[in-house]
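Customer escalation, tier 2.

The customer says the design service returned an amino acid string that "doesn't look like it belongs to this structure." They asked us to rerun it and document both sides in this ticket. The original structure tokens are below, unchanged.
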């Protein structure tokens, strides 16, 4: 529930932030770096209370974390915010909230979770609610909408991998690794594009958006992964 509240606010705040910032990928990179630093502090605090990071012990866990970091923490973010810069926040929010449909379709065969009558009714009501808020179904023909949908599909696949990783690793480990690897990949991509200078020359206005949305993203990741470690993916 906390994650849902954060997400509902975050999409609209980010739609203003990315447009005010200018370049979507640079904005995403800076914001994700801030979120990673916040998660590092939070994980260190959790470790002092006995619930912090756990070390991967198997090759498949390292591979899974790498996939989550590259695809969920970097590529999906780049796609989403590049799309958000082109599409309306309402369209982006609607498409991102279809995540629950894709996760449900994947969790039943891949995680062996049950999709009961209550879950089906909840999914239908949530989708209808999103359609109502958007005043009709969104078009996915535009480039921006397609990019947001692509990011959403990547995040749906990420949920399945994360759920498997959380059987042996703490949510802090998975969340921090995801954002850490993702930030490194985004920084590398920014440098390849020749936009590295933009990361070190942020204005005060840009720093405001980066700090606000970075902290919000850290809250989203920490509550989202903590929920996935405690409840079925379909319910979450």
């Amino acid at each position: 529930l906390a994650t849902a509240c954060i997400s509902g606010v975050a999409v609209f705040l980010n739609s203003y932030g990315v447009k005010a910032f200018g370049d979507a990928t640079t904005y995403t990179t800076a914001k994700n770096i801030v979120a990673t630093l916040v998660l590092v502090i939070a994980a260190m605090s959790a470790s002092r209370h006995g619930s912090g990071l756990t070390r991967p012990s198997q090759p498949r866990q390292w591979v899974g974390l790498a996939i989550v970091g590259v695809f969920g923490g970097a590529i999906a973010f780049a796609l989403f915010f590049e799309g958000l810069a082109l599409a309306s926040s309402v369209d982006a929010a609607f498409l991102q909230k279809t995540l629950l449909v894709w996760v449900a379709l994947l969790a039943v065969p891949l995680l062996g979770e049950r999709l009961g009558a209550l879950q089906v009714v909840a999914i239908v009501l949530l989708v209808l609610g999103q359609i109502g808020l958007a005043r009709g179904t969104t078009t996915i023909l535009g480039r921006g909408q397609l990019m947001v949908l692509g990011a959403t599909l990547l995040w749906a696949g990420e949920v399945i991998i994360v759920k498997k990783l959380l059987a042996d690793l703490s949510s802090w480990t998975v969340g921090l690794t995801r954002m850490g690897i993702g930030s490194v990949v985004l920084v590398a991509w920014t440098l390849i594009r020749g936009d590295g200078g933009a990361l070190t020359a942020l204005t005060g206005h840009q720093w405001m958006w980066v700090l606000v949305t970075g902290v919000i993203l850290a809250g989203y990741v920490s509550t989202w992964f903590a929920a996935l470690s405690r409840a079925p993916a379909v319910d979450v």
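Tier 2 assessment: The sequence is consistent with the input. The two ends are 9 Å apart (CA to CA). The longest helix spans residues 59-86. Sent an explanation to the customer and offered a walkthrough call.
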